[in-house]
Write a structure and sequence with these properties.
Strand content of chain A: 5-15%
Radius of gyration of chain A: 21 Å
Order of helices and strands of chain A: EHHEEHEHHEHHHHHHHHEEEEHHEEEE
Number of strands of chain A: 13
Shape of chain B: globular
Order of helices and strands of chain B: EHEEHEH
Strand content of chain B: 15-25%
Oligomer: heterodimer
Largest sheet of chain A: 5 strands, mixed
Distance between the termini of chain B: 15 Å
Helix content of chain B: 25-40%
Radius of gyration of chain B: 12 Å
Number of helices of chain A: 15
């Protein structure tokens, strides 16, 4: 272990760095390359009141396993996040430590297990087919909005048993709650209020009429022997929407942009669809959008030579760890045959992304169908990224053109 | 060779099952993978060693029998 109590306090490795700024949004790889080139696996930034960015592979690995030092707890008294999260109540289970994490996860495990994702694959493919049918005759679309964002959003609403056609409203609030929270916190707070305000009627409606859906299972559950409080239900539901609606779209958009500039890779996947499972892991390693995972330091200590103080904010940059040249030779290269690809796109440890198995299936279905039905797609206009890419590094508008095709269904 | 999965480290990524479904199986409701019964000794050792290298939690433990004829345990230590 590199965590040692000490009486000598070393100097901090200070860097001029802000993951919420335009430089990171426009070219995150260059920024990350610079972080790794320092040779130190973490750095302190004065932005947003001060925080640690942990990006070295080994340091992230150790930090995530040591949840007693790097706490996930978020509360009004002890808020986490950089800048600090604006929502009032903890999101269960990501803002919780200890054995209750798994109790809370267990509530939804049968839905989000590998078996659950496999059961949903046919439905995911159906939604994908419908969405592509809606634009394939046109020969152009905003791929981000019309497919990559729409599919995961519709799926999670269907799983919850909520109205899937309301996905554009939910998406607007979810996007605002993430991407506006640093520059326009009042917009993000209003969005979170809208989200909570729209979850409340879903709770009362479903309580009166329990069924065979994910949300009914949540309402029936008694994690740790007690049913969820209303506040916990709001946090749990918000987290399911958040996880479902932004990150898979972000990953897939980043990969489509990559493939637009790399026809050789696109051709490899078209010629050999059997590459898809390993390619998925390589894309996850290189193009994961999920940066904004935070912890709070619980005691003074020295970690990888750096002096941490109780109460310090820390950001675990999982996607940056995936680009660490110490762990991954040629980290920015794309190698579908890469072995020992222990990327951290879904996080590690007790908070491993609960939706990771669904994310993989949705990604593979969407990319597979794009390559099958729109094989000659080209980016045809300005790719618009979310202005703040510090938490989720994703594309808002991805205009493409392609040879028009025919609908699969009537 | 002995292969096991440390249940306290496995976090249900299921990458071992993806890499070698004949060697590992996933317990959906326990959020973790286990070594398939009878797989060790039936399948080539390399199958397990390669899968261990894909586990981001380093939860797959490979122990080589400590006999003069067996390969050194260096490959095993790479696994965790």
């Amino acid at each position: 272990m590199t965590t040692t109590p000490t009486t000598e306090v070393p100097d901090r490795h200070e860097l001029d760095f802000d993951h919420h700024d335009a430089e990171f949004r426009d070219d995150n790889k260059t920024v990350i390359r610079r972080l790794h080139a320092t040779g130190c696996p973490l750095a302190h930034s004065e932005a947003h009141g001060g925080y640690w960015a942990i990006y070295g592979y080994s340091a992230v690995y150790e930090a995530v396993q040591d949840w007693e030092l790097f706490s996930s707890v978020h509360s009004l008294d002890n808020p986490k996040g950089v800048p600090q999260a604006s929502y009032p109540t903890p999101l269960i289970p990501i803002d919780v430590d200890g054995p209750m994490v798994q109790e809370f996860r267990r509530v939804a495990l049968s839905w989000f297990s590998p078996g659950g994702a496999k059961r949903d694959e046919a439905r995911i493919r159906e939604i994908c087919t419908e969405l592509i049918d809606d634009f394939i005759e046109r020969g152009s679309c905003d791929l981000s909005h019309e497919l990559l964002t729409a599919l995961p959003a519709r799926l999670i609403l269907e799983m919850l048993g909520w109205q899937p056609e309301r996905w554009p409203e939910w998406i607007e609030w979810i996007h605002a709650s993430i991407h506006d929270r640093t520059e326009h916190p009042e917009v993000a707070e209003a969005a979170v209020e809208n989200i909570f305000g729209n979850i409340i009627p879903e709770i009362s409606a479903r309580r009166a009429n329990l069924g065979n859906d994910l949300f009914s299972d949540i309402l029936r559950a008694e994690p740790g022997g007690q049913p969820f409080t209303e506040e916990q239900l709001l946090g749990y539901s918000y987290l399911l929407l958040l996880g479902g609606m932004d990150t898979t779209a972000g990953l897939t958009g980043n990969v489509i942009e990559l493939l637009d500039g790399r026809p050789d890779l696109r051709q490899q996947l078209i010629d050999n669809p059997g590459l898809m499972p390993k390619a998925t892991e390589e894309f996850l390693r290189r193009e994961s959008p999920s940066y904004g995972l935070y912890r709070t330091v619980t005691r003074d200590t020295v970690f990888h030579g750096q002096p941490l103080k109780k109460g310090d904010k820390a950001m675990l940059m999982f996607p940056a760890a995936g680009l660490d040249p110490v762990e991954f030779p040629d980290p920015e290269g794309v190698n579908f045959e890469r072995e020992g690809n222990r990327h951290m796109a879904f996080g590690l440890g007790p908070h491993r992304c609960l939706g990771s198995h669904h994310a993989r299936v949705m990604f593979q279905v969407m990319l597979g169908e794009i390559l099958r039905r729109l094989p000659d797609f080209r980016i045809s206009g300005d790719v618009v990224r979310f202005k703040d890419a510090g938490d989720v590094y994703a594309i808002r508008n991805l205009p493409i053109t392609f040879t028009p095709g025919t609908r699969s269904t009537s | 060779m002995k292969v096991s999965i440390d249940a306290s480290r496995c976090r249900g990524h299921a990458l071992c099952v993806g890499a070698a479904p004949e060697a590992f199986e996933f317990l959906d409701l326990e959020d973790r993978a286990v070594v398939r019964e009878g797989a060790v000794g039936t399948l080539p050792d390399d199958v397990f060693i390669a899968a261990a290298r894909e586990c981001p939690e380093r939860a797959i433990i490979i122990e080589h029998a400590n006999t003069p004829d067996s390969p050194a345990s260096s490959a095993a230590s790479e696994g965790h």
